[in-house]
Structure to design on (303 residues):
């Protein structure tokens, strides 16, 4: 195995203290490394310059996800390997003293959510960085991920109507997060025309929020990928009957980076397909005109 980045430097000692020995604070780094104040601050400054370390508001230091695992793989963990579910048991059932597992805020938030939900769902646990979810838990974690997204939200979902999750997407767009959604066109629906009309109008609201919207009528998967770090693959559609927990929906959440990247690539492949078409104001106006005519025709026949 090749040596990790920054090998043989003060930076290596600082990174090893954080990734392997579990240091979070400046004084812990000093205690573990034995470096003096100048040496630690010089190493931290150079790591900040390389954008591989962040100082959190509470003063703790988190390092880049890939670099964290690079050091863990090379040096191992002297305190013994800990599976995600073992670390979850260390978390408070409320958001206090959370362990920053995997040195990532979003993943840490997932683990806080799991710790909290285990109070009423004792069998809820991560296994090999994957988590099985069903019913209202599936909706709950989806909302949580969207709420805590910082950069990007990618979704594939054939059936999209107004619900609490889609309202979260609009809120994310207002925070200037890149939100992309691939769905089926309402013209494919077998629902009555009044429901289609409401659906088209809501699709316009999504588009107006700044969401990047596409139709592909071959899409049947349900995917959610947030910041390229967490993914959910499930049976849940984005309408009230499905997201409310009234229907039996189930899925898998993954924080395994390799799997998440593959799922993200699947989204990009679908986005690039020739039959994935951008949703525009003109397209929605045409769909709305068509369904309005059908509603009017139905009313005329009933007179």
């Amino acid at each position: 195995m090749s040596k990790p980045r920054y090998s043989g430097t003060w930076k290596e000692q600082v990174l090893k203290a954080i990734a392997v020995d579990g240091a979070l604070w400046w004084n812990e780094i000093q205690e573990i490394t034995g470096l003096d104040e100048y040496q630690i601050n010089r190493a931290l400054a150079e790591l900040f310059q390389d954008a591989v370390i962040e100082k959190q508001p509470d003063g703790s230091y988190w390092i880049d996800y890939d670099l964290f695992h690079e050091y863990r793989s090379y040096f191992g963990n002297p305190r013994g390997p800990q599976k995600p579910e073992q670390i979850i048991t260390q978390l408070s059932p409320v958001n206090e003293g959370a362990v920053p597992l995997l040195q990532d805020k979003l993943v840490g938030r997932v683990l806080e959510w799991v710790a909290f939900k285990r109070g009423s769902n004792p069998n809820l646990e991560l296994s090999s960085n994957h988590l099985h979810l069903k019913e209202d838990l599936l909706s709950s974690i989806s909302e949580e991920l969207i709420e805590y997204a910082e950069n990007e939200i990618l979704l594939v979902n054939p059936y999209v109507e107004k619900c609490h999750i889609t309202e979260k997407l609009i809120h994310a767009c207002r925070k200037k997060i890149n939100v992309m959604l691939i769905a089926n066109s309402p013209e494919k629906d077998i629902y009555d025309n009044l429901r289609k009309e409401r659906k088209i109008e809501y699709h316009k609201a999504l588009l107006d929020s700044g969401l990047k919207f596409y139709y592909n009528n071959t899409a049947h998967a349900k995917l959610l990928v947030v910041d390229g770090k967490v993914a959910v693959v499930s049976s849940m559609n984005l309408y009230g009957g499905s997201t409310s927990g009234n229907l039996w929906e189930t899925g898998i959440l993954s924080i395994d980076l390799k799997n998440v990247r593959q799922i993200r690539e699947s989204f990009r492949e679908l986005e690039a397909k020739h039959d994935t078409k951008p949703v525009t104001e003109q397209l929605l106006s045409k769909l709305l005109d068509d369904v309005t005519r059908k509603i009017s025709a139905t009313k005329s026949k009933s007179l």
About this structure: Strands lie at 53-55, 61-63, 130-134, 152-156, 178-183, 212-215, 223-226, 230-234, 250-254, 277-278. The radius of gyration is 23 Å.
